[in-house]
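User: Please predict the structure of the protein below. I'd like the answer in structure-token form so I can feed it into my own downstream comparison script.

Assistant: Understood. Taking the following sequence of 424 residues as input:
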Amino acid sequence: EDMISNSELELLFETLAQTDGSLDDCFGYFSKGLNNGDPFRPCCVLVNMLCHNMLNLTERIIAEYCIIASYRNEASRVNPFTANLLETIERCESSYEKKFLYHAFIKGNEEFGKQKIKAIPTETDTTDQFPLPEDYYPIRKSLYDSLPQLSGYKAIELSRVITDHNLDENNKYTPPTLPLKDSKLDFPELEVGIFQPDFLRPIPIPLELKEEELFWLNPGVLHDVMWDSNMCVNNDIKGYVKELLQKGLKTSLSPQEIESIRAAFNKDAKLVHHCDITPDHLPLLIEISPQVATNLLINVFPSPQIQEYFDKLATMELTLGSLEVVNHLCNKGDVPKEFLHLYVTNATKHCESLKRDPQRQKREARLVSVFIKSLIKNKHLSVKEIYLDIHAFTIEFIKIPEANSLFKMLKQMDGGDGKSPTGN
């Protein structure tokens, strides 16, 4: 992958070739032209040009200002090119460039952004020296201390650009007078990249074999074949429970299978949420395997999902199995009174709707009467809020002994005055 795109490279050339306006204008042109607003990759190329002395003095000042201004809103120590800028300050030959970097980077003076490009000297003047002030060195130390330390092979990476050693030793850091656009540099020369040394991995030397090790390579004793009693046993508890529950939707389970489901739920309470039994399966499971349905609901009880199961249970068709399940739930824990009231009300209305089948109506009215009486006796149901529904139910089926007994219980609870607990 290329370090920089062709459009970004053209932006760099155009920025460095600016001759009008100020440094702030150059930086504005540079930042506005970035594709994704991230200056890091273009600045990497600018640093590469600076380090290998590819720019004349005016272009160097523009490049350095773009690098500094790109991270001006952050603390200077987080500028990713701090080390490069510090190195440039100490090795540059131009007093103008040294002074510019000291004030613009080290001191953070933004006034240099107003410097007109035409006012920047085009050639290096080595006669006028700018000695670095004393406060530079403590600042440099704090900046270096804040830089991340490279270790291992990262610390000895080599650049892809090779310095021409035929240059005069005294002038190798002197910027060229030729502008970048006339230097005929090719794209690969501007690409930032490194070479890393290969990590040598010698082939391990085989260890010498000892006599006692040969026994393990060539065992001389043949053991008798023994039958594995655990072979073909399903050790996947989750899969086993799912298989039993799916079976429970089709046929009655044996007591051993019901106990296996109960033990699995007791061992892992979260298993109930991964057995693929939804509220829509509940009516069928209650009809065929009410005990399994009870175990399932007891383990779902602590989770918010229990409300969906209660809604399904309250609105399903009344059966002996559903009465059994609700009764077990009431004995095992605190069932929400809203659910219990809705279930009892629906049960009484269900009995009233069976007028075309007197035998079935009588049988189910008897079951519902015994069920309601048991709830009241065990203090699971408070009749105050649904007194009128239960009272009307007992009056309609007063000839049925169980309903008559429930009627008498309600009358005793009223104190024998014939008034309901609601005051009506």
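That's the full token string. Residues 152-156, 416-424 have pLDDT under 50 and may be disordered.
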